[in-house]
């Protein structure tokens, strides 16, 4: 059996439409197939490869850690330099009130930890999240998700979570003194890139303060420079009580975090109530890669170029079949009106050497989220291929 056949017969399938792209190697913004194929990666493993694939400094950090130790013990027992240095580097990117980092394995686990933390800290049981939110696939994070179709088969889910409409000021009244936390994506990703305005975020922050509710911002997709700021909440002049990150954080390695202040995080310390335990969370190799990723984003001025690169995409992607483009920095959705129109375009673009896809809850729009290191010339090449794919699909 060849690799595609093995994939189809022995790997669990997660979609009716697998792209089935074979990859032998990845470097920078490119993926390379076994028969000389070369693709421009415009999705970055869904917002993961922000510094590009196999960035030399990420590889060097991993190599150096491989020579020291791999796993030692459940997170939080030994003093591990990659973890302490990473926590400090993350806190240095954040306002003073976010000074305590809990390292985990993934985005979903960061969500789980944050929901538990909010219950413990407030003593409240109710939560609010948003319609069309995506927070992960585990039971707790799925419960916070806002797409009925995805949740239906798994009920009963976590009780006590109600949903408001992202960006709707009037809905903020539903946050009250029983609400432990509001969790929302700063920029809604899988809903197809929806961006609320500054007024909304200001009002949300005020309402949480008035009711003693913790504000949890999920920047698992929007963080790490993707939107043109290190953290997406910086666009709106607010600070969350708990911040979630993963994906782009590891520079291609699995790692996530929920970040709060010492007082909030401190409740996890109180024995005999179990806080959050994770065997592999903050794995030293991932933590070393993540520390290098933070440094690369800062040293290579990748974030300050995001806005201009996004503007270039928008100026080039003009075609009668494109109904509009929604974006915050290089988190972009190109709207085609239906999956029937979009899917053949994505397939043809892959044949032409450009990889894009669609969103979990928005299948009429093309996802564009390239590595932030993409150059102007590469943006021109990618857009030319997409326009050709539109004409030839
Ligand atoms: N939150 C958001 C906003 C996400 O985009 C994702 C992943 N698409 C998650 C949470 C879940 O992250 P993970 O797949 O690492 O569990």
Would you mind describing this structure in some detail?
With 393 residues, the protein is an alpha/beta fold. The chain folds into 2 domains: 3-54 and 301-392, Aspartate Aminotransferase, domain 1; 56-299, Type I PLP-dependent aspartate aminotransferase-like (Major domain) (Aspartate Aminotransferase, domain 2). 35% of the residues lie in helices and 18% in strands. It contains 13 helices and 17 strands. The chain has helices at residues 3-10, 44-47, 56-66, 81-92, 107-122, 139-144, 148-151, 198-211, 262-266, 284-299, 306-316, 339-351, 376-392, and strands spanning 25-27, 30-32, 38-41, 100-104, 126-130, 161-164, 179-185, 187-188, 194-195, 214-218, 242-245, 256-260, 324-328, 331-335, 354-355, 357-359, 362-368. The protein has a 7-stranded mixed beta sheet, with helices on both faces. It has a 4-stranded mixed beta sheet with strand order 1-2-3-15. A hairpin with a 2-residue loop joins β16 and β17 (362-368). α11 (306-316) runs parallel beside α13. The longest helix is centred in the C-terminal third of the chain and has 17 residues, at 376-392. The protein is globular, with a radius of gyration of 21 Å. The mean pLDDT is 97. Residues 46, 106-108, 111, 134-136, 185, 189-190, 218, 220-221, 246 line the site of 4'-deoxy-4'-aminopyridoxal-5'-phosphate. GO terms for molecular function: transaminase activity. This is Aspartate aminotransferase family protein. Pfam families: Aminotran_3 (PF00202).
